[in-house]
């Protein structure tokens, strides 16, 4: 086992047994066509759950799992999405079709070569032609087919391959709401893409769609609210923080050769607040030390706030408006939670602060704990703010 900042699976994957077992069972059950929505805050472990479920389903004959992450986009156009999704589908179906080439290499080679390779595969003429087209068109150039039809083609490819190989295609679209940001003729496509996918998917019998999202409000637009295109189309699961004993397990399993003081472990649990990413990061910083005490944990936390903080939190912070920043800085530094209190600190009336709280909640920066009571969603982001905007000699208060 090793600390990892990438999605965890196999022996690196801790806890979540009930959820993963349930998903594996439902998704491989031939009588079921329903998939899952996983939602939860950033870095809580959504992608890891999908990857672990995929790993377990890959062992089953009747299912082919296609995992697609919207984070990896390059151009961010609809055509690129359709092509990359098709490539992932072809790649996963490759072994079932007898494909001996890497799909990424194939996509870059000549049409003649692609034709030759596909000729050897056990496919209907129609599917072969579709694959050939989806692999070889140039997403940067205008094609005769409009981009939305390309998306339809990609989904149909999955459906046809599943049908022709007598399998179920479990499609996992990680960070699903991000696809609303895809560009169509230079503009964001928005909810239309969801409606389109819903319409295509409605008639499909072999694709089981699963999605994730980090920002509750955008996922609401996509799937959770009664007016959303995918309302009641999924089994909805919230991914919650890990219990302390599992955070402890991530640390202890990976630092077998170190002697770790009890208060150091407690500090890691408290600091990471059940978010596995932070446990992995701190653990990685502590590697190679024979003895680990509270001071070492403090140093690791400082390192995290410096290294990662500048990468992730700075961007999150800069994406906020100046009023929103004022509010969260006050919340972090003065430990305030009520709009009236915050308002009097930053010289704004209560209802204005309330309005901004709504925005901040939609952006998953704050969470509403009760009437007139809010807190910052991520305790580490809070620390980063304290460190950057609070007293100059700040040390983490764990
Ligand atoms: N069950 C787990 N056991 C051990 N480590 C985990 C687990 N789940 C997640 N992690 C670790 O936490 C970090 C974040 O995981 P992951 O990328 O799956 O989260 P996410 O919710 O998809 O994050 P993002 O919001 O960035 O997409 C990674 O370092 C991963 O290795
Ligand atoms: Mg993820």
Write up this protein:
- The chain is α/β, with parallel strands linked by helices and 398 residues long.
- The chain has 3 domains: 10-238, Rossmann fold, CATH 3.40.50.300; 244-315, Orthogonal Bundle (Helicase, Ruva Protein, domain 3), CATH 1.10.8; 320-389, Arc Repressor Mutant, subunit A (Orthogonal Bundle), CATH 1.10.10.
- 53% of the residues lie in helices and 12% in strands.
- It contains 17 helices and 11 strands.
- It has helices at 17-27, 46-57, 78-97, 103-108, 111-119, 125-136, 147-164, 192-202, 216-224, 244-254, 262-272, 276-286, 294-318, 322-334, 339-346, 350-362, 379-389; strands at residues 35-39, 63-69, 168-174, 183-184, 187-188, 207-213, 234-238, 259-260, 291-292, 366-370, 373-376.
- It has a 5-stranded parallel beta sheet with strand order 2-3-6-1-7, sandwiched between helices. Strands 4-5 form a two-stranded antiparallel sheet. The chain has a two-stranded parallel sheet with strand order 8-9.
- Strand 10 and strand 11 (373-376) form a beta hairpin.
- Helix 1 crosses helix 2 (46-57), helix 3 packs parallel to helix 7 (147-164) and helix 14 (322-334) packs across helix 15 (339-346).
- It starts with 16 loop residues before the first helix and ends in a 9-residue tail after the last helix.
- The model has no long low-confidence stretch (mean pLDDT 90).
- The site of adenosine-5'-triphosphate has 22 residues, from helix 2 and helix 12.
């Amino acid at each position: 086992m090793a600390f990892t900042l990438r999605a965890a699976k196999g022996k690196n994957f801790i806890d979540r047994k009930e959820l993963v077992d349930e998903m594996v069972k439902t998704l491989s059950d031939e009588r079921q066509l329903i998939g899952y929505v996983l939602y939860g805050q950033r870095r809580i472990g959504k992608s890891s759950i999908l990857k672990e479920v995929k790993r377990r389903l890959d062992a089953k004959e009747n299912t082919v799992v296609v995992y697609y992450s919207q984070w990896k986009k390059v151009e961010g156009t609809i055509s690129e999405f359709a092509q990359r999704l098709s490539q992932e589908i072809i790649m996963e179906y490759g072994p079932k079709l007898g494909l001996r080439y890497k799909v990424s290499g194939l996509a870059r080679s000549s049409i003649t070569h692609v034709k030759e390779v596909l000729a050897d595969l056990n496919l209907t003429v129609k599917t072969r032609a579709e694959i050939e087209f989806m692999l070889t068109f140039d997403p940067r150039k205008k094609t005769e087919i409009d981009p939305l039809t390309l998306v339809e083609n990609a989904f149909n490819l999955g459906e046809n391959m599943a049908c022709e190989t007598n399998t179920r295609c479990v499609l996992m679209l990680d960070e699903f709401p991000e696809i609303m940001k895809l560009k169509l003729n230079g503009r964001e496509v928005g909810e239309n893409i969801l409606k389109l996918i819903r319409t295509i998917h409605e008639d499909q019998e072999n694709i089981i769609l699963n999605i994730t999202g980090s920002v509750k409000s955008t996922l609401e637009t996509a799937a959770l609210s009664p007016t959303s295109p995918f309302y009641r189309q999924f089994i909805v699961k919230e991914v919650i923080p890990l219990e302390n004993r599992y955070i402890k397990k991530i640390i202890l399993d990976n630092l077998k050769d170190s002697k770790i003081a009890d208060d150091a472990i407690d500090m890691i649990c408290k600091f990471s607040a059940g978010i596995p990413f932070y446990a992995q990061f701190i653990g990685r910083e502590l590697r190679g030390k024979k003895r680990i005490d509270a001071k070492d944990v403090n140093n690791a936390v400082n390192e995290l706030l410096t290294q990662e903080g500048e990468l992730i939190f700075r961007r999150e912070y800069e994406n906020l408006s100046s009023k929103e920043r004022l509010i969260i800085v006050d919340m972090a530094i003065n430990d305030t939670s009520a709009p009236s209190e915050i308002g009097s600190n930053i010289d704004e009336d209560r209802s204005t602060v309330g309005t901004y709280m709504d925005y901040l909640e939609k952006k998953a920066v704050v969470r509403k704990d009760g009437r007139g009571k809010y807190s910052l969603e991520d305790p580490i982001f809070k620390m980063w703010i304290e460190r950057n905007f609070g007293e100059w000699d700040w040390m983490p208060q764990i």
